[in-house]
Amino acid sequence: AESEVNPLQYDDVFALELAADPQVHANGNHVVFVRRSMDRQTDRMVGRLWQVATDGSNLRPLTSGEGNESSPRWSPDFERLAYVSDQSGSQQIHIRWQDSGHTSLVSTLPFSPGSLSWSPDGEWFAFTMFTPESRQAPVQLPGKPAGAEWAEAPTYIDSVQYRRDGAGYSPQGNSHLYVMPVEGGTPRQLTEGDYDVRGTISWSHDGEAIYYSANKNENPVAEPVNSDIYRVEVDSAEVQRITNTNGPASEPKVSPGGRQIAFVGYQDRQLAHQANRLYVMNTDGSEIRNLTEDLDRSVSSFEWARDGRGIYFSYDDEGEGHLALHTLRGVAETLTDGVGGLSYSRPYTGGQFSVADNGKLVFTQMASNRPAELAFLEGSQTRPITQLNRDFLSAFSVGEVEEFWLESSVDDTRIQGWIMYPPGFDESKQYPMILEIHGGPHAAYGPVFAMELQLMAAQGYVVVYTNPRGSTSYGEDFANLIHHNYPSNDYDDLMDAVDLVVSRGFVDEEELFIMGGSGGGVLTSWSIAHTDRFAAAMVVNPVINWISFTLTADMYPYFSQYWFPGLPWDNVEHYMEYSPISHVGKVNTPVLLFTGESDHRTPISETEQYYQALKLRGVESAMVRVPGASHALHLRPSNLMAKPAYAVYWFDRFRANGGESN
Ligand SMILES: CSCC[C@H](NC=O)C(=O)N[C@@H](CC(C)C)C(=O)N[C@@H](Cc1ccccc1)C(=O)O
């Protein structure tokens, strides 16, 4: 009965927890993971190291929990655990001795370490670290008198990648590879040059060398996705190029026997989306084999089986994460689905896993009614390990999620989508409906817990989300239906989904609303220029003008080459035809904009253009600016609650009865 319904409240964002980065012990009996929770005082997600037996018993913290902890990594003998913590005031490497429980800070690094990796003998750490380029300002000016308060000196920039979303304006420099004794000491830099060492690094079997991936091409602006695998000798720092592919080659992992390397990448065909393939080669780069040529899905992450005879890997299919084992002899077997759950704000796919020596697996398990929890897979049996959200979510009525499929009205393409019902849903009643559109555009939603959507369902809205053409997890052809053609029939797919849900009879056609973030903001602003069926719209961190976007976004060398037929000034007509700003003259729908002021992916100038255009046209509109927020608006819990709260405020204003019934 409706009286028993206890919907989520905005403040409940602080109760969410997630189990992430599982690292299972070789014996498969227990697993260390990062327990992520929301800290009300700092308004941030914090990570703490916890351990649990794979039967779900003995859940306990591993540290005193005074810092933000991440990247737990077992030593080769599984007697020590390395991790990164900011307990000392900056991100540093720590070790925990598993027998005594003693922990110690072992580094004093000037910048945060990444891709932490133990040498095979357990005596060295390898890691990546930002390495500033020491440079004098090109002009030398007289200095300020002692005690004077002069303006901050101007900054001189001449690098291509001068700012990044989430990181802000970068100092000059690159991410390079270092080694350091595990008991502490001076880090030694192994790579140098004007390129970044990115992603996984992997020690050779004998510990004499490290494999890494980098884009060292002479003109990385012209080849933004190209990268290769290199080998650097630890003693001499001598570097050898291992691959020479046309496209990315990344995440090298040396096989347990030391004779082969697995990596991911693809042969670049200059398409907006290409699936990451899993390759194996000899350590000298010979005999490269594509193991997943026939899969037509992107390999998300992978790990060698302990016996070296196969590789476990994860991939998304139809909005859901899967785990599979590919033997080197060519047999692939899907082991489980339900991998995901790490995206807790909107229902994006994405999960993690870890394999024990005996092939037992621990993975983050997705569910539409709770964020990521750990699950254990043995043979074909899956069972839950953690229940971190049980305490909190069992007290609430969470919106139920139902899958649907439809056939496109423009061709025979099949489109998948989901309906989230408000708690206490009664199909004999009429509900307002929100269509929530994902970004990317080459990304996918799935049956994943999504706090933003749940909070809107908790306010009485039916929330609909789909994977229109362009989405990932349905194959390369489906994703590239919008190659150089975005937005286009993806709009029709979205409208087909609205029609389908409306036809079910429980949605009030006068109370249809539309919203989306980033690529979803593109499609929202595009949609309201092509239909007046929505009573109001919320456009979140959108691109409004592809020309200004490609000339202000952080990934500009990529966007201008892979998403468009050429550079903006050579293709003005194409860029403008696909820009929502070109169609703003047809918009009559009231629009609320919502964007982070420090967004360098879809800079707030896009939002401002749209806002000012709407005002010039006299369309009812408002703009919410989120101070300090990057493209990932949900990172601060207070912003995670602000977005659905503003959506509900705006949509309620344009409901037939002004939202009075809520
Ligand atoms: C190699 S494609 C890089 C683009 C990137 N793709 C990831 O999804 C991206 O940032 N896309 C934007 C739109 C684009 C700039 C026009 C986007 O829609 N992003 C999505 C996904 C996302 C979520 C959190 C942080 C970064 C991306 C979104 O914001 O919902």
From TrEMBL:
Gene Ontology molecular-function annotations: serine-type endopeptidase activity
Known SUPFAM superfamilies for this protein? Answer: alpha/beta-Hydrolases, DPP6 N-terminal domain-like
Gene Ontology process terms (BP): proteolysis
- Indicate the segments forming the Dipeptidylpeptidase IV N-terminal domain, all copies: 171-259
- What Pfam families is this protein classified in? DPPIV_N (PF00930), PD40 (PF07676), Peptidase_S9 (PF00326)
Gene3D superfamilies reported for this sequence: alpha/beta hydrolase, TolB, C-terminal domain
Peptidase S9 prolyl oligopeptidase catalytic domain ranges (all copies): 449-652
Keywords annotated in UniProt = Acetylation, Hydrolase, Protease, Serine protease, Signal
Q: What does this protein do?
A: This enzyme catalyzes the hydrolysis of the N-terminal peptide bond of an N-acetylated peptide to generate an N-acetylated amino acid and a peptide with a free N-terminus. It preferentially cleaves off Ac-Ala, Ac-Met and Ac-Ser. Also, involved in the degradation of oxidized and glycated proteins.
Identification of the protein by name: Acyl-peptide hydrolase
